Amino acid sequence: MRDLFDDLDDAPEPPPRPDRPHPALGDTAALLALLERWVARGWLRALDRALVVFLQREVPDASAPLLLAAALASHQLGRGHVCLDLATTLAAPDLALSLPPEGDDLSDPPPLPSQVLDGLTLGEWEQALAHPGLVADGDQGAPGHTPLVRGATAPGHQHQGPRLYLRRYWQYEQDIRQQITARLNSATCGNTAPCGSTAPPRDGADRRPDDATSTSDGRRPDNATDTATLAAALDALFPTTETIDWQQAACALAARSPFAVITGGPGTGKTTTVVKLLALLQALQLGQEDRHALRIRLAAPTGKAAARLNDSIAKQVKGLSLVELASAVGQQGVDISTLRDSIPTEVTTLHRLLGSRPDTRHFRHHAGNPLALDVLVIDEASMVDIEMMAAVLTALPPRARLVLLGDKDQLASVEAGAVLGDLCQRAEGGHYTRQTAEWLEAVTGAPLPADYRDDYHGTPGQPLDQAIAMLRVSHRFDAASGIGQLAEAVNRPLDAGHTAKEKRRAVRQVLEHTPAYADLARLRLADADDPALDRLVVDGAPVGFPNSGQGRRDPRGEPLAPPTGYRHYLEVLRDQRPTDTSFGEAGGEERAPFDAWARAVLEAHGRFQLLCALRRGPWGIDGLNPRIGQALRRARLIAASDHELESGWFEGRPVLVTRNDYGLGLMNGDIGITLALPDDREPGRRLLRIAFPASDGSGQIKWVLPSRLQAVETVFAMTVHKSQGSEFTHTALLLPDAPNPILTRELVYTGITRARDWLTLVETGRGMLDEAVTREVMRVSGLGKL
Ligand SMILES: Nc1ncnc2c1ncn2[C@@H]1O[C@H](COP(=O)(O)OP(=O)(O)OP(=O)(O)O)[C@@H](O)[C@H]1O
């Protein structure tokens, strides 16, 4: 039998080189005409072309290749990349730029980027960028006010080619680099808990002791603690192990550095570790005479992620045993209830933390009005884009700690920037120096395995490497979990020892494992009308799982409910509807039954979600949403006309917020469910409102009128990009039937790891999974090695 994977290994023939450059490279009028065609076709944003028109008007002698680079840099921003990498773009223009975009029918297309750029050499393009009126040199600190900046060669990234930035994004990257470097430089390796930064405030001001850079007791949080105390405290928090306990090592590394990253896959214990870290920091602080507790804040990029962390942190803090820790620090020990009360459980969104203001991208907190805190923990940091990360770092008091938590391998934010992924490029290998290794052994009692040391890799460990810890053992998915095995097989990067062919085989082995994994089902659809899709979205297609999903237990031995589809939340909606005749517009007691109902529906909605890669076409959200709506209507679970399914409102409609709405307090990524409520003004009539969980994790319900929602979409099908930070009991991941640059290992890994208990992998064409898992997201940035 022909191997399904063989054809993927055949490289396409390179096209012949043209005799002369494309006209759009020689003449700005031709370039503008080409950009016009690209915009009309939906290949570029109108904004990208408008930038070129503006630049050309301001600087008429700008050459066409320079203006094209500006348009493409702007286009890349819209796709999440902070800059344009010239060499990568020239090497494979259509792939690097993802053009034509998904869903384009390819009939009578305008010239492709590969046709336009063919014949242009890197040297010629670089030369075209040497225009001091438009492009500043990042190596020189980008003097002047040019709209564009040529990226500096990042130290340690000599292989990185020339990059073109829009100045604002170059500046964000600089701000992040400077702020992190200042914190890393102030970490006195070998010492413990040296939070006191020696860096002056960014604004150069000589602040008073009671300002935001001090702890709440007016002192600097420079609780330098000796190694023995830290070792005793870690010993109190973690069981003794012969080999390295990565959670303990992460806690130790994060305790000694004012900037720290804890990364790890799903269920590797990021939350567990950070709760212990906070207990440790507070114990060390309170263990010193006359010290008040540190002011700690917890934040996440979306309301949903904040609510999730809120729940898990509250549980973990409650279950934390603090007796030994309290007596391990300080002469007198620490009062246990004071210590427990000093560990916060409330998680806020980053927007709320920084003080977002309606109708402006500026926040209330910034360098001139820093946040009043000593420690900031950001969960789901992979979702934080470059602009937000720069805003956070700029608003952080110079002496405050920052701890980033997240999964470095997840897809990055939909907005530009992949800060966590960039920072964690070397996390896998550790790259700890001898000094760090010896210190870690001294405080944890276990030796660091040689392959995580820098001398093993033959390159010196950088300060950033010493501040990053990767958790490597999943406590949620054990060896018997197909979800865990599949995630691991998909996530393993390609390298010399792991070829594309081997990787595909490893993925296939998980899918075809005998006996079949209890939490993994596979579904093949013939076409978009295949009734198997109805069975999946309505009832969850439990028959696809061994024993139809019956009789499974969770790691604690509790019985697990079999997988469900959307029927579950729609039945909760129907069966638990309050009988009260008044909604209670003014709030208060009257509304309580409706709030409880909405909470139950939202909770039930989290039991199943269909994820897909694309937006357009029959296998994108545009095709799937009405298609699923019709299936639910046939099952009599919703009542909606075709028109309402396409673009209207109906009870049961789940919606996803696609743009932050500061006025309503709704954030991009929030999910609400449309419910029918009694209309208090007209008894007997019903009024549709969308119930959203409050973004502060308080469990409150926010009721919003449909007409007030500016940017929402139906979310029977959700893109994997939008699913980041969420988790669903049963996740169905649907892959399209044709190759697409958007299909990458990061996307598949992110989709798989949204599943908590059940995963159905839905395939609509042959070979797409194999293709996806061997394609990696190209990350281009100047962050990475600090
Ligand atoms: N060292 C450990 N030993 C046993 N169980 C653990 C350990 N660490 C974490 N767990 C358990 O594993 C589960 C996942 O832990 P946790 O929520 O801390 O992981 P996470 O990395 O934050 O997960 P997520 O992927 O949801 O962000 C929890 O039930 C937790 O109690």
Automatic annotation (TrEMBL):
Coiled coil spans: none
Entry GO CC: exodeoxyribonuclease V complex
Domain RecBCD enzyme subunit RecD N-terminal: 41-149
Residues that hold ATP according to the record: 264-271
Compositional bias ranges of the Basic and acidic residues kind: 203-223
Catalytic activity: ATP + H2O = ADP + phosphate + H(+)
Region (Disordered) residue spans: 1-24, 187-224, 544-563
GO molecular function: 5'-3' DNA helicase activity; ATP binding; ATP hydrolysis activity; DNA binding; exodeoxyribonuclease V activity; single-stranded DNA helicase activity
Domain of life: Bacteria
Keyword field contains DNA-binding: yes
SUPFAM superfamilies hit by this protein: P-loop containing nucleoside triphosphate hydrolases
Acidic residues bias spans: 1-12
Keyword rRNA-binding: no
UvrD-like helicase C-terminal domain residues: 715-762
Keywords, comma-separated and alphabetical: ATP-binding, DNA damage, DNA repair, DNA-binding, Exonuclease, Helicase, Hydrolase, Isomerase, Nuclease, Nucleotide-binding
InterPro entries: Coronavir_polyprotein_1ab (IPR050534), P-loop_NTPase (IPR027417), RecD (IPR006344), RecD_N (IPR049550), RecD_N_sf (IPR041851), UvrD-like_helicase_C (IPR027785)
Pfam families, A to Z: AAA_19 (PF13245), RecD_N (PF21185), UvrD_C_2 (PF13538)
Functional description taken from the UniProt entry: A helicase/nuclease that prepares dsDNA breaks (DSB) for recombinational DNA repair. Binds to DSBs and unwinds DNA via a highly rapid and processive ATP-dependent bidirectional helicase activity. Unwinds dsDNA until it encounters a Chi (crossover hotspot instigator) sequence from the 3' direction. Cuts ssDNA a few nucleotides 3' to the Chi site. The properties and activities of the enzyme are changed at Chi. The Chi-altered holoenzyme produces a long 3'-ssDNA overhang and facilitates RecA-binding to the ssDNA for homologous DNA recombination and repair.
Subunit structure, as described in the record: Heterotrimer of RecB, RecC and RecD. All subunits contribute to DNA-binding.
Family recorded in the similarity comment: Belongs to the RecD family.
Miscellaneous comment: In the RecBCD complex, RecB has a slow 3'-5' helicase, an exonuclease activity and loads RecA onto ssDNA, RecD has a fast 5'-3' helicase activity, while RecC stimulates the ATPase and processivity of the RecB helicase and contributes to recognition of the Chi site.
Protein name as annotated: RecBCD enzyme subunit RecD
Annotated source species: Halomonas heilongjiangensis
Gene: recD
